[in-house]
Design a protein that fits this description.
It comes from Methanothrix soehngenii (strain ATCC 5969 / DSM 3671 / JCM 10134 / NBRC 103675 / OCM 69 / GP-6) (Methanosaeta concilii). This is Small ribosomal subunit protein uS3. The protein has helices at about 5-25, 50-55, 60-70, 90-105, 110-120, 155-160, 220-235, 255-275; strands at about 30-40, 40-50, 80-85, 125-135, 140-150, 165-170, 175-185. Helix content is about 40%, strand content about 20%. A hairpin with a 2-residue loop joins strand 1 (about 30-40) and strand 2 (about 40-50). It has a four-stranded antiparallel beta sheet with strand order 5-4-7-6, covered by helices on one side. It has a three-stranded mixed beta sheet with strand order 1-2-3.
């Protein structure tokens, strides 16, 4: 078998198992399943609103489902694990089953669609789309859509992030298809972004300047210390008496020298007078 045919066969088997579990566990609030291949066999995880009803009394129902998966679909050692679906209002298949059940009980399609969409949005979903198609009010079939919030319709996010569910309501006039698409609240869409508030630009750093010369530490003045020591000594010793300097005496000249100086002055005066006469 080629690789392409192998993948196609596995996809068909998974779809048939999903349809079988939806029919068997409709009353338990079937919310989908995951099937993985392991070395020990085929691991199947079933999500339901009421896990106790999936197991059954004494495990009777889950043993029956395990035998059917082995015989009808030839799965290798199927092992079933049951998990709680959590919040049913955010599961597409659970909401679709509720909508189909409401239509079968006689609810008006517009009331049923609006009610289910309101419950989904109140649960915190980012978006919800409900499509009801079939003979709603007359002999001609038509389609009604109920949309709230934001829904992705194309691309990889529409495949990975959107939870889908489908169910069928059987009425006297015919069958009515119910399709539900939900974006859970904890999903980050690729086109979701937030604009941050502008921040003030940082202040420019000051230009580096020459380092100032180091200021020498002040040293104690030694004169003041000496003065203070001297003051202490003066205070401790008695004050000394002031000494006044004695006037100097002029040297006395002898009488003989005085007589010699007088004739010399007279001769000098006579010579000056003779010069004037000439």
């Amino acid at each position: 078998m080629s690789v392409e045919k192998k993948f196609v066969a596995e996809g068909i088997t998974k779809a048939l198992v999903n349809e079988y579990l939806a029919d068997e566990l409709e009353r338990a609030g079937y919310g989908g399943m995951q099937m993985n291949r392991t070395p020990m066999g085929t691991q199947i995880t079933v999500y339901a609103e009421k896990p106790g009803m999936v197991i059954g009394k004494g495990g009777k129902l889950i043993r029956k489902i395990t035998r059917d998966l082995d015989r009808r679909f030839h799965l290798d050692n199927p092992q079933i694990d049951v998990q709680d679906v959590g919040r049913g209002d955010l599961n597409g298949r659970v909401v679709a089953n509720r909508l189909a059940s409401s239509l079968e009980r006689g609810w008006y399609f517009r009331k049923a669609g609006q009610s289910m969409m309101r419950r989904v949005m109140d649960a915190g979903a980012l978006g919800c789309e409900i499509v009801i198609s079939g003979k709603l009010t007359g002999p001609r079939s038509r389609t009604e859509k109920f949309i709230a919030g934001y829904i992705k319709h194309s691309g990889k996010p529409a495949i990975d992030l959107v939870d889908r569910g489908y169910s069928v309501a059987v009425k006297k006039l015919g069958v009515i298809g119910c399709q539900v698409r939900i974006i859970p609240p904890d999903v980050r869409l690729p086109d979701d972004f937030q604009i941050e508030a502008p921040q003030a630009p940082p202040a420019p750093e000051p230009a580096p300047s020459a380092a100032p010369a180091p200021v020498p530490a002040p040293t104690p003045a030694p004169a003041e210390e000496k003065k203070s020591e001297l003051d202490q000594l003066l205070e401790s010793e008695p004050e000394a008496a002031e000494v006044k300097p004695e006037p100097l005496e002029e040297p006395s000249m002898p009488a003989e020298n005085a007589t010699e100086i007088a004739p010399l002055s007279e001769e000098k005066a006579e010579s000056e007078s003779v010069l004037k006469d000439e």
